[in-house]
Specification:
heterotrimer; A alpha/beta (about 375); B mainly alpha (about 250); C alpha/beta (about 350); B: about 250 residues; mainly alpha; MetI-like fold; 10 helices; C: about 350 residues; alpha/beta; Rossmann fold; 2 domains; eight-stranded mixed sheet; four-stranded antiparallel sheet; 12 helices; 12 strands; about 20% strand
Chain lengths: ~375, ~250, ~350
C-alpha cells in the first residue's frame, strides 16, 4: 500500500466538536421483524474528553458505540441520522472508506481481550500490524515501536512478551496488549466497550488508570461503554444513561449523582449495593427487568418499572428536556433533587416480581413510596405485547 | 414449526433428507409400482437410452435400470438403516460411557475404538464377509462392526460437551446417581446430534455396501443392490453408461 | 469439634470454640488438581465455621479458590483432605449412598442461571427433580412442595410449570434455580456468584429474595462473589481468599473499616466508589496480577505483590491469628489501623 495523502487533516482547523452524533437511529432487520437498538440518539464529544455510556443489557449502549465506528454489518442494519467526526459525515460511507479511519483516527478496545487477539499469532506480531497498518516503516523500526508501545502500557520485559502468544499472558496483560494496539495509530477517539468487565477488580483499576494516563498523554477522547455506574462516574467527564435504545439522562459526571432527576437513573444508582449498607438490609430493587429490543413499551420506555409513572407516561414519550445547558433528561415528572433523595426508603415489602415481558404475573406490582405507603400499582402483564 | 424453519436455513441438508425419503418411499412401494421385474430379460429392448417406458434406460440384456435402482434401494437402504441403527446403539453406548466416566474407562474404550478405526474399513468388511460367507446378515454385521468405532467417537465427543453443562453438576449436587444423570441430563442432549450424524452415516454405509457389491462380496445374486448394479454396468460403460451411472447418481 | 487436632497448618482456636453453634464447619480443606503442567493448589488448608442463620461471604479474585471451596464442600470434586461437617456429619467421610441421603441438607446455586437448568426439561420437572431423586413422599406431595417453592421465589406455579427455561430471563432462571435448591428444605445454601451474570437492577431483586428466604427459612449461607460490595451487603462475616488460602476473616463492618491484611485493603481500594467524596482515602495499589496457582509463591502467597512485604513473608507461611475479637488475619505485618497505614509510596 502506497503512502497516500490522508484525506482527513490531522490538525484541527475548526473548534467544532470532535464527534457530533445527531439523531442517530440504528435498525436491525431480523427474521422476526425490525428492532431499533439505537433510537434517536444525539451526543457530542470534544477533543480529549471522556463520555461514559451507562446502561443495562439491551439498552443499546454497545450497538451505539459500534454504530459510531461503523462496525456493524451493513447487510441487515440500516442507519439514519448523522455521525460527524471532525466535521465529516460517517453515516452512509462504505466500510472500505471507514476502515481508513480505523486505527488511525478511531480505535476500539473490546470487552474480551482473548477474542480480540488472534490466538495463533504472537502478541508482537499483532501489535506490529497495528503499527504498520497506516504507515510504511522498516521491520526494525516497527519492532522497536512495538517494544515501546508494550512498555508504555505497562508490560514488563516487552521484548520477551512480544514473542509470546495471547494464551501465555494473563487477562490483564492481554487487555494491555489490546490497548497498545488501539493506541498504536495515535487515534483521536477511543471507543472502549466494557474494557474491564472481564477482569478482576484489582486489575480493573490498573487498566482504568492505564487508559486514563495514556489518554491524557495523547489527549485522546474516549467513549467508555459500561454497565458500572461507579466506573463511569470515576473515569468520565460526562455520562449518558441509556435505557431501551434511548439516552434518558445526560449530565456531567460530577453533578449526575447529586442532581439526577430521571427516575431510572435514580433507581439504577439505588439498586447498587454499597459498602455503607448494613448487612442484610434490603436494596431498592427496580421491579421487572430491562425490556428486550423487540418489546420496548409505548410511551416512556421506563414507565412499566417506574414507581412514579402516571397516565401520561404510558401514552406519550417524553422528549429530551434541558435542566441546564449540560444536563438533559427524558421524563414527564422528573424528581426534584431533594424529592429523589427522600422518597424511596428501604422497605420490607415482599420482593417484587420480575414481570418483564415473560408475563409471568397478571398481578399488581407494588412499590414502596414514602413511609412505606404503596404507590399506585398497575397490572404488569398488560405492559407488553 | 421449528423443523420447518431450520429446513429453510439449510437447503442442502433439506434436499438430502427429502431425497433419501423419496427413495425410501419408492423402495417400500416397489412391489406396487408395477415396474418391470429388474431381473426380467427383455430381448426386444436391450441397451436402450432413457425413454418413457424405461426412464433410466435398459442394460445390454434388456433389464430396466430404473426398476433395478428402486429394487436395489430395498437392500441398500436396509443395510444402511439396520447397521447404522445397530451401530448407534452399540457405538453410542460405548461413547456415552467413555465420555461420562472419563479416566480409565475412557482410556480402555477409546483405545479399543482407535484400534478398530486404524484397520481400513473395507479390508475389515472384506475379511468378515470372506470369513463368514456372503449373506445379507453377514453384510449387515460387517458394516455394523465398521460403523461402531466412528459412532462411538462422535458420541463420546457429544457426551463430553453435554457433561460440561452446569445442570449436570446441579443434578449431582441434588444427589442424582450416575445412571440417572446419564439418562435424564446427558442422553437427551446427545441423541439429537447423533441422529443427524446417523443420516450421514446411512449414506456412508450405503456407499460402503456399494463398494462391497462392486467387489462382488455383497448379498449374492440374484438379489439386486446398487453396488451390484454398478458392478454389472461397469463393463459396458462405453455402450450403455446409464446402467452404471444411474444407480451411482441415485446414491449421491 | 473439640477433637480437631491443631496440627493442621492453621486452625484458629477461637474459631473452633464457635464451632459448637456451627451448622457448617470446614477444617483443613485441601483441593489439588493434577494438570499436565503440574499440580494446582486450588484450596489450601481452608477452615471456617458458619453458625445457624449466619451468612459467610467468601471473596477474592479469579483463581483464588472460592468457588472451588464450595464445590469441594458439596463433594462435587474430590478434596484431598479435610472435613466438611454439616449438622454434625462429615460429608467427606460418607459413602456415596450415605451422601445422597444427606444432600438435601446442603444445596448449591450456581453462577450461570441459564446453564444450570437443563433446557430440555420443563420448569416444574426441574424443581421437582430433587424430590424425585430422594424418592420420599408421593407424587402429589412432590408437586405440592414444588409449587410452594416456586411461589416462595416469586413465580406463579400455574403459569411457569410447563414452560422451558429458555422462555425466561436470567433473573427468572435464577429464581427457578433457587426454588430447586430450596424445595428439599435445606439448612445450608451455598451461593456461587449467583448475581454476577445479572443486570444491576435484577441483581438487587435476587439479593433481596435471598435475604427474605434466609430469614423466613432460617438458612445458613455461604456466599461466594468477586464483588466485595455485594458480599458486604449480604454477609455477617467475610473471608478473603487469595490463591487458595484464607488471608483474613472478620465481621463485615470490621473488615471494611479496619482491614488488617494488605490484600484486603487493596481489594477494597480497587472498588470503584460511586460517591466521589469517599475515594480520597483509598490509595492502596497492588502491582501486577495474581500469579498462577500452578506455582504459588513460597511463604505468604501475596508477598510478591504486597507493598509491605519483608523478608520473612517470602520464607514462612503466615498463620491465621486473631487480631481483634473475631477478626483473624494471616499476615506478618498486618495493618493496625485500617488502610491509613498502608505505605502509599510503593
Amino acid at each position: 500500500m502506497s503512502v497516500a495523502e490522508p484525506a482527513i487533516p490531522s490538525v484541527p482547523t475548526h473548534r467544532e466538536a470532535l464527534l457530533d452524533v445527531g439523531d442517530l437511529v440504528t435498525r436491525f432487520v431480523t427474521a422476526t421483524g425490525e428492532v431499533t437498538p439505537v433510537d434517536h440518539v444525539s451526543l457530542s464529544l470534544n477533543r480529549g474528553r471522556v463520555l461514559g455510556i451507562v446502561g443495562e443489557s439491551g439498552s443499546g449502549k454497545t450497538v451505539l458505540s459500534r454504530s459510531i465506528m461503523g462496525l456493524l454489518p451493513t447487510r441487515s442494519v440500516s442507519m439514519t441520522g448523522s455521525v460527524l467526526f471532525k466535521g465529516e459525515e460517517l453515516v452512509g460511507r462504505s466500510r472500505q472508506d471507514l476502515s481508513r479511519l480505523w486505527g488511525d483516527e478511531i480505535a476500539m478496545v473490546f470487552q474480551d481481550p482473548m477474542t480480540a487477539l488472534n490466538p495463533v499469532r504472537t502478541v508482537g506480531d499483532q501489535v506490529a500490524e497495528a503499527v504498520t497498518q497506516h504507515r510504511s516503516m522498516t521491520r526494525r523500526s516497527a519492532r522497536a515501536s512495538v517494544h515501546d508501545l508494550l512498555f508504555d502500557v505497562g508490560i514488563p520485559d516487552p521484548k520477551r512478551r512480544a514473542l509470546q502468544y495471547p494464551h501465555q499472558l494473563s487477562g490483564g496483560m492481554r487487555q494491555r496488549v489490546v490497548i497498545a494496539m488501539a493506541l498504536a495509530g495515535r487515534p483521536s477517539l477511543l471507543l472502549a466497550d466494557e474494557p474491564t468487565t472481564a477482569l478482576d477488580v484489582t486489575v480493573q483499576s490498573q487498566i482504568l488508570d492505564l487508559l486514563a494516563q495514556q489518554r491524557r498523554l495523547y489527549s485522546t477522547a474516549m467513549i467508555l461503554v459500561t454497565h458500572d455506574v461507579a466506573v463511569a462516574v470515576k473515569e468520565c467527564d460526562e455520562i449518558a444513561v441509556m435505557y431501551s435504545g434511548r439516552i434518558v439522562e445526560q449530565a456531567p459526571a460530577s453533578t449526575l449523582l447529586a442532581e439526577r432527576v430521571m427516575p431510572y437513573t435514580d433507581a439504577l444508582i439505588r439498586s447498587i449495593p454499597t459498602l455503607d449498607d448494613v448487612p442484610h438490609s434490603r436494596l431498592d430493587a427496580i421491579v421487572g427487568r430491562p425490556p428486550g429490543l423487540a418489546d420496548a413499551p409505548a410511551g416512556c420506555r421506563f414507565h412499566p418499572r417506574c414507581c412514579f409513572a402516571q397516565d401520561r407516561c404510558r401514552i406519550e414519550e417524553p422528549p429530551l428536556a434541558e435542566l441546564s445547558a449540560d444536563h438533559r433528561f427524558r421524563c414527564w415528572f422528573p424528581l426534584s433533587a431533594n424529592r429523589g433523595m427522600a422518597l424511596v426508603e428501604p422497605s420490607a415489602a415482599p420482593s417484587p416480581l420480575e414481570d418483564g415481558s415473560a408475563d409471568t404475573s397478571g398481578g399488581v406490582v407494588r412499590s414502596a413510596g414514602a413511609e412505606g405507603q404503596p404507590v399506585e400499582g398497575r397490572p404488569a402483564g398488560e405492559v407488553n405485547r | 414449526m421449528k423443523p420447518l424453519r431450520s429446513m429453510a436455513t439449510r437447503p442442502v441438508l433439506t434436499l438430502a433428507v427429502l431425497w433419501v425419503l423419496l427413495i425410501a418411499v419408492l423402495a417400500l412401494l416397489a412391489p406396487m409400482l408395477g415396474l418391470p421385474d429388474p431381473k426380467q430379460f427383455d430381448s426386444s429392448a436391450t441397451a436402450q437410452g432413457p425413454s418413457l417406458s424405461h426412464p433410466f434406460g435398459t442394460d445390454p440384456v434388456g433389464r430396466d435400470v430404473f426398476s433395478g435402482v428402486i429394487w436395489g434401494a430395498r437392500v441398500s437402504l436396509t443395510v444402511g438403516a439396520v447397521s447404522v441403527a445397530g451401530g448407534l446403539v452399540i457405538g453410542g453406548l460405548i461413547g456415552l460411557t467413555a465420555g461420562f466416566f472419563r479416566g480409565r474407562v475412557e482410556t480402555v474404550l477409546m483405545a479399543f475404538t482407535d484400534v478398530m478405526l486404524a484397520v481400513p474399513a473395507l479390508i475389515l468388511v472384506v475379511f468378515i464377509v470372506a470369513l463368514r460367507g456372503q449373506s445379507l446378515a453377514n453384510v449387515l454385521l460387517a458394516v455394523l462392526v465398521v460403523s461402531v468405532p466412528a459412532i462411538a467417537r462422535v458420541s463420546r465427543a457429544q457426551t463430553l460437551v453435554a457433561t460440561q453443562h452446569d445442570y449436570v453438576t446441579a443434578a449431582r449436587a441434588q444427589g442424582a446417581t450416575n445412571l440417572r444423570i446419564m439418562r435424564r441430563e446427558v442422553l437427551p442432549n446427545v441423541i439429537p446430534p447423533m441422529l443427524s450424524f446417523s443420516f450421514v452415516a446411512v449414506a456412508i454405509v450405503i456407499a460402503a455396501e456399494g463398494g462391497l457389491a462392486f467387489l462382488g462380496l455383497s448379498v449374492p445374486s440374484p438379489a439386486v443392490t446398487w453396488g451390484g448394479l454398478i458392478n454389472a454396468g461397469r463393463g459396458d460403460l462405453d455402450t450403455t453408461p446409464q446402467v452404471a451411472l444411474m444407480p451411482a447418481a441415485t446414491m449421491f | 469439634m473439640s477433637t480437631v487436632p491443631n496440627s493442621a497448618e492453621h486452625v484458629p482456636s477461637a474459631d473452633v470454640d464457635r464451632a459448637s453453634g456451627a451448622v457448617v464447619s470446614v477444617r483443613g480443606l485441601e483441593q489439588r488438581f493434577k494438570m499436565r503442567s503440574g499440580t494446582v493448589h486450588a484450596v489450601s488448608q481452608v477452615s471456617f465455621d458458619i453458625a445457624r442463620r449466619e451468612t459467610l461471604g467468601l471473596v477474592g479474585e479469579s483463581g483464588c479458590g472460592k468457588s472451588t471451596t464450595l464445590k469441594a464442600m458439596m463433594r462435587l470434586s474430590r478434596p484431598e483432605s479435610g472435613e466438611v461437617v454439616v449438622n454434625g456429619v462429615d460429608w467427606l467421610a460418607l459413602s456415596d449412598r450415605e451422601l445422597r441421603h444427606c444432600r438435601p441438607q446442603m444445596q448449591m446455586i450456581f453462577q450461570d442461571p441459564i446453564a444450570s437448568l437443563n433446557p430440555r426439561r420443563s420448569v416444574g420437572d426441574l424443581v421437582l427433580e430433587p424430590l424425585a431423586i430422594q424418592g420420599r413422599g408421593s407424587r402429589v406431595e412432590h408437586r405440592e412442595r414444588s409449587e410452594q417453592a416456586l411461589t416462595a421465589v416469586g413465580l406463579d406455579p400455574g403459569d411457569v410449570w410447563h414452560r422451558k427455561p429458555h422462555e425466561f430471563s436470567g433473573g427468572q432462571c435464577q429464581r427457578i434455580s433457587i426454588a430447586r435448591a430450596l424445595v428439599g428444605n435445606p439448612d445450608v445454601l451455598l451461593c456461587d456468584e449467583v448475581v454476577s451474570a445479572l443486570d444491576v437492577s435484577v441483581q438487587a431483586q435476587i439479593l433481596n429474595l435471598l435475604e427474605d428466604l434466609r430469614s423466613s427459612r432460617n438458612l445458613t449461607i455461604a456466599f461466594v462473589s468477586h464483588d466485595l460490595s455485594v458480599v458486604h451487603h449480604v454477609a455477617d462475616r467475610i473471608a478473603v481468599m487469595y490463591l487458595g488460602r484464607i488471608v483474613e476473616i472478620a465481621p463485615s463492618g470490621e473488615l471494611y473499616w479496619r482491614p488488617a491484611h494488605p490484600y484486603t485493603a487493596a481489594l477494597l481500594a480497587a472498588i470503584p466508589e460511586i460517591d466521589p467524596s469517599r475515594r480520597s482515602r483509598k490509595a492502596v495499589v497492588v502491582r501486577g496480577e495474581p500469579p498462577s496457582p500452578l506455582d504459588p509463591p513460597t511463604g505468604c502467597r501475596f508477598h510478591p505483590r504486597c507493598p509491605r512485604a519483608v523478608d520473612v513473608c517470602s520464607t514462612e507461611v503466615p498463620v491465621l491469628q486473631e487480631a481483634a475479637d473475631g477478626h483473624f488475619v494471616a499476615c506478618f505485618r498486618p495493618l493496625d489501623d485500617g488502610w491509613q497505614s498502608v505505605d502509599i509510596s510503593t
